[in-house]
Design brief:
The complex is a heterodimer of chains A (about 45) and B (about 475). With about 45 residues, chain A is low in regular secondary structure. Helices cover about 15% and strands about 5% of the residues of chain A. In chain B, α4 packs across α5 and α13 packs parallel to α19. In chain B, strands 4, 5, 6, 7, 8, 9, 10, 11, 12, 13, 14 and 15 form a 12-stranded mixed β-sheet that branches. In chain B, strands 1-2-3 form a 3-stranded antiparallel β-sheet, with helices on both faces. Classes of the chains: A little secondary structure (about 45), B alpha/beta (about 475). β1 of chain A pairs antiparallel with β3 of chain B. Chain A: This is Six-cysteine peptide SCIFF.
Chain lengths: ~45, ~475
């Protein structure tokens, strides 16, 4: 597309189908102890 | 631009939910499709047309985008700036994105919230307060020099063992279990840390579990023996350091007032190298005293660290170092500077990772995770040295949130229920925020401590989170450019 560059085609809707296994890391266990940063966690199934 | 974005944000918060979030940063025109999570980098015309469509109707579909009514409205608004032919040629592309669910995607997540919330949750992570004592006297410490509004105490092996048993027993089929050795300063109770790791390794074999251990330390007691053990057993190590020497030493002194930087930095550098510069974070706190905190991140990079995090301080608004609303413009500017610096370093082949700019657009968390939030009070509990459970480390010491203990288990399930019930749709402020699927409702402790309710959101924290999400996405756009130019 001439005017648009799409960075990601995977939509959040698609993650509903296979998601929810709960194996991913708890956000505060990494380097965030005073704010919440869930979006930067990685899906365990895609590692 | 900053003011315009802020105003737009406020206007949007009062009105209908965000479907599209547009912003310009570092020369990029970025369109975030909120509900799909898709990110589009567009030229100025694309930016203007999408804004026009968004204003015309929040429920655009492939059909409405190509309707005669829409064409007329777009031409009316933009034909003095762009040619009619170009404007009309763009609409089929946008309609295609809408058809694919990548633009103007409707919110289908709220209807799943019931299903997500009623899932049986298991406990999968513990923050073990291995020592309510500390050998530093950091001025902003929410643990009040490690004591958490209580007495100095070290966790016994017996209490820690019961906590691990509780975790295994309440983790259902979840295999990966996380345990963070936290404090105070956990190295002040090092033998118990080692014994608990050994106990965990025995138990994981019996129950087909896998413990991922983390240790958060100020580094004062770090030595070769400890380093070797950490490298063998800890999945992650969090190293507390605030940045430049004068910044660190002003807030992180010893009890005698002397700064900690000179003692700690060489140990942290050695540890980071010995871990091949992965599976650790050097983590700092910025306060009102160092609003130019991008320099502290740059300082980390100059010291050779590759994994870093600097978070805004959490403090009462009466504390002189607490972040105030009027500091936000400067903080936003610092995040912009940092983002540009990171891109520059990447171009030079000297890139590093900043925790709060990490965003995985393709492989990030599923929507169930994003709707569940951080898990405090349900999947994640903090354990005091004497074995009491709290929803997270930031609630420790507040008796209203005492949930149970290692002997009796959860005695106040209503507290867990209150935490389970919080999500981006139960919080009015989140419902209309473009960043809701990235912070998942934000920190519950901040919401409670600053705004008085778990179902609130800490406004200053939200402003900073939105900015960080914008910067993180912009970096992705810039790196995509870099990838193309190298290809």
């Amino acid at each position: 597309m001439k005017h648009i560059k799409t960075l990601n085609t995977q939509t959040l809707n698609n993650t509903m189908k296979k998601g929810g296994c709960g194996e991913c890391q708890t956000s505060c266990q990494s380097a965030c102890k005073t704010s919440c940063t869930v979006g930067n966690q990685t899906c365990e199934q895609k590692k | 631009m900053l003011q315009e974005n802020l105003r737009k944000n406020i206007d949007k918060q009062k009105g209908v939910p965000f479907v599209i979030h547009q912003y310009q940063n570092n020369g990029y025109n970025i369109v975030l499709d909120v509900n799909s999570g898709c990110v589009h980098v567009v030229d100025q015309m694309g930016y203007d047309v999408i804004a026009c469509l968004d204003r015309l109707c929040q429920d655009q579909t492939a059909e409405t985008i190509q309707s005669e009514e829409t064409k007329k409205a777009v031409l009316e608004e933009l034909s003095d700036k762009y040619s009619e032919k170009e404007l009309l040629s763009l609409l089929p592309d946008l309609a295609e994105l809408a058809k694919e669910g990548q633009l103007f995607a409707p919110d289908t997540h709220e209807s799943c919230i019931g299903e997500v919330m009623k899932r049986k949750t298991v406990v999968k992570a513990l923050c073990l307060h291995i020592a309510h004592d500390c050998n530093l006297a950091c001025k902003y410490c929410f643990a009040e020099e490690g004591e958490y509004h209580g007495r100095r105490a070290l966790m016994s092996f017996e209490v820690g063992k019961k906590a691990l048993d509780f975790l295994i027993a309440n983790s259902g089929s979840r295999r990966n279990l996380e345990v963070d050795f936290f404090g105070g300063e956990p190295l002040m109770n090092w033998q118990v840390v080692k014994d608990l790791v050994a106990y965990g390794r025995e138990q994981e074999k019996k129950y087909d579990k896998h413990f991922r251990f983390t240790l958060t330390t100020n580094g004062v007691l770090l030595n070769d023996e400890i380093q070797e053990f950490l490298n063998k057993e800890m999945d992650n190590v969090v190293l507390s350091l605030d940045g430049r020497k004068e910044v660190n030493d002003a807030m992180r002194p010893f009890r005698n007032g002397k700064g900690s930087y000179d003692l700690i930095v060489p140990k942290f550098q050695k540890l980071a190298d010995s871990r091949d510069q992965i599976r650790y974070y050097v983590r700092g706190t910025f306060t009102r005293n160092n609003l130019d905190f991008s320099k502290d991140v740059m300082h980390f990079a100059d010291l050779g660290f590759k994994q870093m995090s600097i978070e805004p301080v959490v403090g009462d608004e009466t504390d002189p170092y607490a972040i105030r609303k009027e500091d936000l413009p400067q903080i936003f500017d610092e995040y912009d500077k940092l983002a540009q610096y990171m891109i520059q370093r990447e171009k030079e082949g000297k890139g590093f990772n900043f925790f709060h700019f990490m965003i995985d657009l393709e492989g990030g968390p599923c929507i169930a995770k994003r709707l569940s939030g951080c898990g405090s009070g349900t999947e994640y509990l903090a354990v005091t040295p004497w074995g009491d459970f709290y929803p997270c480390h930031q609630f420790v010491g507040d008796e209203d949130f005492l949930m149970g203990n290692v002997d009796e288990g959860i005695t106040k399930p209503e507290i867990a229920e209150a935490f389970r019930g919080c999500n981006v749709y139960s919080k009015e402020k989140c419902r209309n925020c473009f960043a809701k699927f990235y912070c998942s409702g934000g920190c519950m402790a901040n919401a409670y401590h600053f705004e008085g309710s778990l179902n609130e959101a800490y406004d200053i924290g939200c402003e900073m989170e939105r900015k960080r999400v914008e910067c993180a996405i912009m970096i992705k756009a810039a790196l995509a450019d870099l990838g193309e130019s190298e290809a």
